[in-house]
Design a protein that fits this description.
Helix content is about 20%, strand content about 20%. The protein is of the alpha+beta class. A hairpin with a 2-residue loop joins strand 5 and strand 6 (about 55-60). Helix 9 (about 405-415) crosses helix 10 and helix 13 (about 495-515) packs parallel to helix 14.
Length: about 700
C-alpha cells in the first residue's frame, strides 16, 4: 500500500479527488494504525507515518469515498493516571463525517474484563462488534442555497424528532417514513408551512449509541442524547442505506426546508459522550487520549467528573477539545447549512474547573468566531451539577430555554396563588432576567412543553407520571405536574372534564404565542398529541412517542394555525425591545399597562390584588408605536389589544378600562369558544363575564 506523509490538517478523513488524507490528534499515542475494512469485514492495517503537533497523519492514494475505516492507538494503559490506550480496540474517528452500522454489545468493546474489574485490561479485539467510519463524499449541489438568517422577532420554533414526526404520516411514502428524506418530503414541509412555524429544532441527529442497558430491556435510545460522533449524521434516519449516504440525504432535507423558508436548528450534545464512566465502553475518545478529552477527578484519575448524569464531561480546558467542538459547529453551518444550535445542558460547557463560568474559553471562542457567532445560539441553561441552574446568566448574543417561563405559566394556569407579578415578567419577555447585558426579549425562548416532560395534552390530563413502560418501576422522570383539578386522569367520557382540558390547552397556546420572546412549540401539541402520561419517553421508539396523525384534534390544530398567523400579522406581540411602562413617541397612552377586574390600572409598586383575584388580570398592549424601529428605521404601527386572563376556577366579571385606553373593543378570541368572528363591539367601561380558566383577546377599534 502506497503511503505519503500527508498533512496534519484538516483532521479526520479528507478526499481530494485522487486519494484521502487521514489525521488523528493524540498527545499520548506512541503509534497510530489506520484500519481499512472491505465489505466482508476483512481488515488491512497501516501505520500513520508522521506526527506533527500531536496530530498523526498520512495520505493514501486511491482511497475513495465510501471506504470503511477506524483507528487503533498504541500508548499507555494506566487508568490511575487517566490513560486507557489499547490497540485491541478499534476506535471511531472523532472527525468522521459518516458512520456505518451500530455497536454490538460484546465484552470486547469494554476496556476491562467483566470478571476481573475495571483495572484489568481487556485485550479482546473489538473490531467485529464496532461500527465503521466512512470516507466522506465532499461534493453536493446546493443550487445556491444559503442560510436564511430570519430575524429572531419573526421566529416561531417547532421542536420535533426526525423519526417521530414522520413515522406514521399517511402522506409520506412508507419507505421514507422515519427519515431525513421523509422530513424533507413535500407532505411534511407543507404541513409546517401551513402551521406557520419558521424553524424546526431537530432533536439530536449526531451519530449516537443504543445504550446497552436499554437494548437488554428490548428498548431503544429514542431521543438520541448519547452522541459519540459530532460530524456524522445518525445513519438510522437515512432512507438511503448505502455507507455515507446519510450526509447527502440530510443536506437535501435542509435544502428543501430552506426553499420553503424554514430554518433548521440542531439540538447538540457537546457536554458528554456515549462512553460513560470508568465502567463504560471504549469507542473513541477514551482509547485515543482519555486524559485530554475528559474531565477526570483530581484525586483519582480513574474516575470522571459528571455534570450531565451520564458518566462523563468533555474537558473544555483542552485546546484540541475546543477545536473539535468548534470544527463540528462550523462543519454543520458551512457544509450542512444548518441555521443554528440548541446546546444540551449548556452550563456544563462553562465548567472549566468546577464552578460555572460564563466567561469560559468555550463562550469566548464562540464570541470571536466569524461563522458561529452569526447563527442562532440557544442554551439549555442548566446542568445537573452544583450551581448548574443558570437561567438568565448566559452571555449577550445567546438565547435560552426559559425554564422559569415554563414553570410560571404552569403554576398560573394551575391556579397557584401569588403568581401575577412573575406572570407579568414572563409574558413581557422576562426583563428581570434579560434586560441587562444588552439582551433583548428574544433572549427568552418561551415554552410550556418540550420533549423532556409531558406533552400539552398530557399536562392537562394527568396529575402524575405514567412511565411504567420504561422499565424502571415509574421511578424515572420528574413528577412535576402536581394537581390540575381537571377531574379523572387520562381517558374519560365526561363532557365537562374534556371541555376544561381543551380550554386549558387553548389557554396555554394563546399565552405562549402572544408572549414577548420567541415561542417554541413541541411537535403535536398544536393538535393534542398524547404519550399516555409518559413524561420521560426517551426510550420509547414506538407509538408512545411517534405522532399519531390519524387521531389529531383538527379543531385545536386549526385554532393553533390561526393563532400563529395572528402573531405573524401583529408586531405588537413580538417587540424587538423592552416595554417602558410609559407613553412613548407621542402615543396617547402607555405602551403597556396592567388592570384588575374593576378596570383599574395596577400602578407600579401597588400591592398584589388580594384574595382569589390574584389569579386574574388584564393587560393593555399599545400598538400605535414601538420602543424599537424596524430594520428600515421607520416606526412600526399595529392595533392595540386588551388581554384578560382568568385562571380562577370560578367566573369573574371584568370591567373594561376607561375611554382613554380605547372607546370600542372587538372580541377576537375566547378560549371557551375559540376564534370569534361575529362579536358585537364592546364599549369602554362595559362588563365582560370571564368564564373559569379562560382567556379573552380584544382588539381596539378606530
Amino acid at each position: 500500500m502506497k503511503i505519503w506523509p500527508g498533512s496534519p490538517y484538516p483532521l479526520g478523513a479528507t478526499y481530494d479527488g485522487a486519494g484521502t488524507n487521514f489525521s488523528l490528534f493524540s498527545e499520548v499515542a506512541e503509534r497510530v494504525e489506520l484500519c481499512l475494512f472491505d465489505e466482508q469485514g476483512g481488515e488491512t492495517r497501516a501505520d500513520l507515518p508522521e506526527v506533527t503537533g500531536y496530530c498523526w497523519h498520512g495520505y493514501f492514494p486511491g482511497i475513495e469515498p465510501g471506504q470503511r475505516y477506524g483507528f487503533r492507538v498504541h500508548g499507555p494503559w494506566a487508568p490511575e493516571e487517566g490513560h486507557r490506550c489499547n490497540p485491541a480496540k478499534l476506535l471511531l474517528d472523532p472527525y468522521a463525517k459518516g458512520i456505518d452500522g451500530d455497536i454490538r454489545w460484546d465484552e470486547a468493546v469494554f476496556p476491562y474484563q467483566f470478571s476481573a474489574g475495571p483495572s484489568e485490561r481487556n485485550d479482546g479485539d473489538s473490531a467485529p462488534f464496532m461500527p465503521k467510519c466512512i470516507v466522506p463524499q465532499p461534493f453536493f449541489d446546493w443550487g445556491g442555497d444559503r442560510l436564511l438568517q430570519r430575524p429572531w422577532h419573526e421566529t416561531v420554533i417547532y421542536e420535533l424528532h426526525v423519526k417521530g414526526f414522520t413515522a406514521r404520516h399517511p402522506d409520506i411514502p412508507e419507505e421514507l417514513r422515519g427519515t431525513y428524506a421523509g422530513l424533507g418530503h413535500s407532505a411534511a414541509i407543507g404541513y409546517l408551512k401551513q402551521l406557520g412555524v419558521t424553524a424546526v429544532e431537530l432533536m439530536p441527529v449526531h451519530y449516537f449509541v443504543q445504550d446497552k442497558h436499554l437494548v437488554e430491556k428490548g428498548l431503544r435510545n429514542y431521543w438520541g442524547y448519547n452522541s459519540i460522533s459530532y460530524f456524522a449524521p445518525q445513519g438510522g434516519y437515512a432512507a438511503d442505506k448505502r455507507p455515507g449516504a446519510a450526509a447527502a440525504e440530510f443536506k437535501q432535507m435542509v435544502k428543501a426546508m430552506h426553499q420553503a423558508g424554514i430554518e433548521v436548528i440542531l439540538d447538540v450534545v457537546y457536554n458528554h459522550t456515549a462512553e460513560g464512566n470508568q465502567l463504560g465502553p471504549v469507542l473513541c475518545f477514551k482509547g485515543i487520549d482519555n486524559a485530554a478529552y475528559y474531565q477526570l477527578m483530581a484525586d483519582d484519575r480513574r474516575h470522571y467528573m459528571d455534570y450531565s448524569g451520564t458518566g462523563n464531561c468533555l474537558n473544555m480546558r483542552q485546546p484540541h477539545v475546543l477545536q473539535l467542538i468548534m470544527d463540528s459547529l462550523r462543519y454543520w453551518v458551512m457544509e450542512m447549512h444548518v441555521d443554528g444550535f440548541r446546546f444540551d445542558l449548556a452550563a456544563a460547557l462553562a465548567r472549566e474547573l468546577h464552578e460555572v463560568q460564563m466567561l469560559s474559553a468555550f463562550f469566548n471562542i464562540i464570541q470571536q468566531d466569524p461563522v458561529i457567532s452569526q447563527v442562532k445560539l440557544i442554551a439549555e441553561p442548566w446542568d445537573l451539577g452544583e450551581g448548574g441552574y443558570q437561567v438568565g446568566n448566559f452571555p449577550s448574543g445567546w438565547s435560552e430555554w426559559n425554564g422559569r417561563y415554563r414553570d410560571c405559566l404552569r403554576d398560573f394556569w394551575r391556579g397557584q396563588e401569588e403568581t401575577l407579578s412573575e406572570f407579568a415578567h414572563r409574558f413581557t419577555g422576562s426583563p428581570d432576567l434579560y434586560a441587562g447585558n444588552s439582551r433583548s426579549p428574544f433572549a427568552s425562548i418561551d415554552f410550556v412543553c418540550a420533549h423532556d416532560g409531558f406533552t400539552l395534552r398530557d399536562l392537562v390530563s394527568y396529575n402524575d407520571k405514567h412511565n411504567l413502560a420504561n422499565g424502571e418501576d415509574n421511578r424515572d422522570g420528574s413528577n412535576d405536574n402536581r394537581s390540575w383539578n381537571c377531574g379523572a386522569e387520562g381517558d374519560t367520557d365526561d363532557a365537562g372534564i374534556l371541555a376544561l382540558r381543551a380550554r386549558q390547552q387553548r389557554n396555554f397556546l394563546v399565552t405562549l404565542l402572544l408572549s414577548q420572546g420567541v415561542p417554541m412549540l413541541l411537535a403535536g401539541d398544536e393538535f393534542s398529541r398524547t404519550q399516555r402520561g409518559n413524561n420521560n419517553a426517551y426510550c420509547q421508539d414506538n407509538e408512545i412517542s411517534w405522532i399519531d396523525w390519524a387521531n389529531m384534534d383538527r379543531d385545536l390544530g386549526e385554532f393553533t394555525n390561526r393563532l400563529i398567523a395572528f402573531r405573524h400579522a401583529h408586531p405588537a406581540f413580538r417587540h424587538r425591545g423592552w416595554f417602558q411602562g410609559q407613553a412613548i413617541h407621542g402615543a396617547d397612552c402607555k405602551d403597556i399597562a396592567w388592570f384588575n377586574h374593576t378596570g383599574s390600572e395596577q400602578a407600579n409598586g401597588d400591592e398584589p390584588w388580594g384574595g382569589w383575584l390574584t389569579k386574574s388580570l388584564a393587560i393593555f398592549i399599545n400598538g400605535e408605536t414601538f420602543p424599537n424601529p424596524n430594520v428600515r428605521g421607520e416606526p412600526v404601527t399595529d392595533n392595540s389589544f386588551y388581554l384578560i386572563f382568568n385562571a380562577h376556577h370560578e367566573a369573574v366579571d371584568f370591567m373594561l378600562p376607561e375611554e382613554r385606553w380605547g372607546r370600542c373593543w372587538l372580541m377576537v378570541l375566547d378560549t371557551t369558544r375559540g376564534w370569534v368572528d361575529d362579536a358585537a363591539p364592546l364599549q369602554a367601561g362595559a362588563s365582560l363575564k370571564m368564564e373559569p380558566r379562560s382567556t379573552v383577546l380584544l382588539q381596539r377599534q378606530a
